[in-house]
Structure formats: C-alpha cells, structure tokens
Amino acid sequence: MKLIELESVDSTNKYLIKYFNEFDSFTFVKSKYQTNGKGRNKRRWYSPNGENLLFSFLLKEKDIIDNYKFLSITIASVILEKLNQLGMENVSLKWPNDIYVNDKKICGILLEGRIPEYIVVGVGLNVNQKEFSGIYRVTPTSIFLQLNRKIDINELFLSIENSLYKNVKNFEKYISFAIEHDYLKNKIYKYNDLEVLCLGIQKDGSLKIRNQNNKIEYLFSGELTL
Ligand code: BTN
Question: Could you read off the pLDDT tens digit of each residue along the chain, which spans 226 residues?
Fold first, then answer.
C-alpha cells in the first residue's frame, strides 16, 4: 500500500487515472478538498474543506479486475461494516454502491478505469459535515449528524484503508453481507424511467427486479432513482 496525501486536487479519481501507469495497485490518494469532485452520471461531488473523507485507490490485479462486477458492492459493504462498528444503526447498501442511513445518503462510490488494465475506486464519505446547503437528489447525512460526535478523519481512513486492502477480494463474504443490508429490497424504484419492484441483491452481484410487464430481470449495473 502507498498513500499520497494532498491538501487540494481537482479530483482524487482524476489524479489516479492520469498517473495510473506510474503507480502500483493499492496506491491510495486522499485529499482534504477537491475543486472538481466527480459523482456518478457526470454529477459533481461537493465537500467542504477538511470535513469529510475523500479518497481514491488504484487496482490492477487481474483477479480483482476479472471480478469487477462484485467490486462496487464489496467496497460499499466493507465501508458499511465500518459504520456499523462505529455504532451506527440502520445502515444499508443501495445497490450497486451507495450507502444510506435512515433513508439518507452518507457515502457515494465512483468506479472508473479501463478494463482489463486498471480500475480507480473513488469514495466520498460524509464524516464531520454538520450542514448541507444546496439541492440534493437524495438528502445527505454524515457520521456526525447520525452519531452526534466528531470523528478523527485520519484514524477512520486508516482503518477503512486496511480493511479494503485485506478484504477487497473477499467477494463471497461481502456479497452475503450486502444481501443482509439491501436498501432496495421490496421497494418500488425507477429504472430507465419506469417503475420496477426490487426483489433484492443476488449472489452474483446483480439486482433482481420485477418490471411493469411482470417479468423478472437481473440488472448488472445501472442507476436507480426515486
Ligand atoms: C456518487 O455519485 O455517489 C459517487 C461519488 C464519489 C465521490 C468521490 S470523492 C473521492 C473521489 N474523487 C472524485 O472526484 N469522486 C470520488
């Protein structure tokens, strides 16, 4: 493992994508601030300076890249487990890679890269932010708002970094964990603008849904919106 710590950068994901050739697998980049933080679907990721955890890491191993379909769920589950260990309740995984607490979003994950060469995993976890102004698709929350205590961001990062390093290939265990903490299960959500009933995360990492024609489908990636 290697850690690059920055005060400010455009985006930790962009940084690793730019220099992926020069770094080994499990190079982590963490920044206190991002001037152009990226969210999924070309959205922006805003975070006040020093209040939250913003990091990315690089993966190059063949056995990880070959299993990239399990990756976002595994990473989200590893972080969810940490939140449980901090004493947070009602934490769940919104397939494929968001973490929700009490219907509010606390963590977003963005996977980018070029298969089979490399994958960059970017994590934005709201830690000590007390107020969220602005318009959000999903109401955000933070560890502080949930537990009412300030968290040492560096300490939390080191413990997440270690767990990711140890567990990122532990797909089986963490998919089972995700199935037990499935936010979408039995909820009606929109997929490609059509309402579907979510029937739950499957062992292969897909999401089973029933569509409007009463047909069962298995989604392997995609965006579900309220
Ligand atoms: C989402 O849309 O939910 C994914 C958000 C991912 C944000 C993180 S913050 C660290 C890393 N660098 C970025 O530019 N984005 C990710």
Answer: 999 999 999 999 999 999 999 999 999 999 999 999 999 989 999 999 999 999 999 999 999 999 988 999 999 999 999 999 999 999 999 999 899 999 999 999 999 999 999 999 999 999 999 999 988 989 999 999 999 999 999 999 999 999 999 999 999 999 999 999 999 999 999 887 889 999 999 999 999 999 999 999 999 875 555 4
**Distances 118 to 3, 59, 84, 129, 189 between C-alpha atoms, Å:** 18, 6, 30, 32, 32
The response to whether residue 124 sits with its C-beta less than 6 Å from ligand 1 reads yes
* Ligand 1 centroid from CA 123, angstroms: 5
Q: Report how far apart the first and last C-alpha atoms of the chain are (Å, whole number).
A: 38
146 lines ligand 1 (CB under 6 A): no
The predicted model scores a pTM of 0.95
**Could you tell me the distance, in angstroms and rounded to a whole number, from the CA of residue 170 to the centre of ligand 1?**
23
Pocket mutation for ligand 1, best pick of 35, 40, 110 (most atoms within 8 Å of C-beta): 110
One-letter amino acid of 94: K
HSE (side-chain half, CA atoms, 13 Å) at 90: 10
- 3-state SS class at 108: strand
Neighbour-count burial for 93-125, b at 16+ CB within 10 Å, e otherwise: bbbbbbbbbeebbbbbbbbbbeeeebbbbbbbb
- Nearest-atom number in ligand 1 for the CA of 39 is 2
Q: Tell how far the Cα of 41 is from the centroid of ligand 1, in angstroms.
A: 11
